[in-house]
Amino acid sequence: MNSKFLLLIFSIICLSACQNQTKKTNISNDYSNEALTQAAKDAYIFAYPTVMMYRSMYLQALNPENGVGMGNWLHLGVSNPEDTTIVTPNNDSPYSYAWLDLRTEPYVLTMPKIEENRFYTSQWDDMFGYVLDNAGSVGDGNEGVHVLLAAPDFNGEIPERINRVIKGNSNILGTLTRTQLIGAEDLPNVKAIQQKYKLEPLSSYLGNEAPQPAAEIEWMKWEEGAEFKEDFWRFAGFVSQFVTKHSDDKSKWGDLAKFGFEQGGDWDISKLTEDQKSALEIGQKEAVSHLNEMVSKTFDPKKFFNTREDMKNIGDDDQYVQRAMGVLAGIFGNTKDISVYYGFQTDVNGNIPDVSETPYTLTFKKDELPNVKNFWSITMYSLPKRLLVQNDIERYSIGSASPEMKNNPDGSLTIYIQPNAPENDKLGNWLPSPDGPFWIVMRCYGPDQSIIKGTWPEPKLAPLN
To answer: What is the pTM of this model?
Structure first.
């Protein structure tokens, strides 16, 4: 091989390397460091719900140690302080989870007929954290219902007995199905109802041969805290293969593309330029800080938990922030027609409530209890993790289904919030708290229009002094 030919080969290799390096750095050269950082921050907020939905799915369905598998129910009892899979769990309606991979075919959900006075709802979300629909008491009554759960591109024939179709913007859907607990001795009845919830592939429902299965997935192992690390971006890239791009999100996908992201591809952060890596790191930290700060200051679930269409009405980028805040504060929160949530971030004086300084009370004036079709409750959480609080009497919530609770002589109702038991005549109205900062959430199931529209006068959290 002569020297001229070797020189030609060497020149081609050098040229190719230079072109690759140019391609690698062009993106960061086209944007200032500030613009790249802002894009990374926006991209993190946009992708955050998909990663945290994956976390829930992995822990509940895919974890080799205790996951139930895709397409199977995970029925739980009454929530307690040891439950850490999701934040701000309720203590009134035991949860049933399930995750569906709809790439092969749709599934049919069957909700059984139950007694008229019990609330149940099967909420379904896509991987973006949007609430898609609820099958159950509020929209369908308690006579039972059949719904078809399908991938975004499904347009097949709908079987006769199917009431409606639920689709989102992902091939994977998840449910948090709630069944009301009516009194402390009611759990066996709840468990019996849970066993009647049914999920089956459409082919099985119709008695047909199953279609050829979709390609097997090598699921990424979830590591706790990944949302705060560089691994977040790897998970975001992995989950993207299961979602369908929506035209409303074009600018957000554009933010991700500034860092070499390709949907469903192997997003290798190591191949980015130093400017891109730095922007991702800084933007991620700024996004985490921003979301935590926003959640600590405001709690408006009417914005947090919604359908995609309703989220549009919030306005521009704020809809992505609100959606991420909802996932952070209470993943799988429901829409306002099903339940309205009130979070007491501060007391009447504008301070973060802290029982180490003084006990607190929450008082409803006479004739101003929540007007609901089903029931209401108030649940106690510790901060900053927003988990249930351990206490000797194992009381984690209090509300309309608490028979021991008593009104005041003037007809008002006072809830006593403190770590230690109050006087005997107040025990029935005691909501045990941590000995420090706390957060309470009031849930109103089947709310009337005054609650939905925000005209109902909510109670005030006040220091007891």
So the answer is: 0.86
* Lookup: tokens for 148: 């078809």
> Closest Cα partner for 327 from 40, 58, 51, 100?
51
203-260 pLDDT, tens digit per residue, is 999 999 999 999 999 999 999 999 999 999 999 999 999 999 999 999 999 999 999 9
Residues 376 and 450: beta-carbon distance below 8 Å: no
Q: In DSSP terms, which residues pair with 430 in a beta bridge?
A: 416
The β-bridge relationship of strands 413-418 and 360-364 is antiparallel
Burial class (CB in 10 A: 0-12, 13-18, 19+), 385: exposed
DSSP H or E segment with residue 278: helix 274-297
Cβ-based neighbours of 84, under 8 Å, separated by 6 or more: 385, 387
The DSSP secondary structure of 378-430, one letter per residue, reads EEEEETTT--B---TT---EEETT-TT----TTS-EEEEEESS---GGGGGGE
What residues contact 238, with CB distance under 8 A and at least 6 apart?
54, 220
Domains of the chain: 29-206+219-331 (2.60.40.1610), 336-463 (2.60.120.1600)
Q: Are 168 and 50 in contact (CB under 8 A)?
A: no
What's the DSSP call for residue 354?
A: B
Sequence-separated (6 or more) residues with CB below 8 Å from residue 303: 311, 314, 322, 326
Positive or negative, the Cα torsion across 32, 38, 41, 42? negative
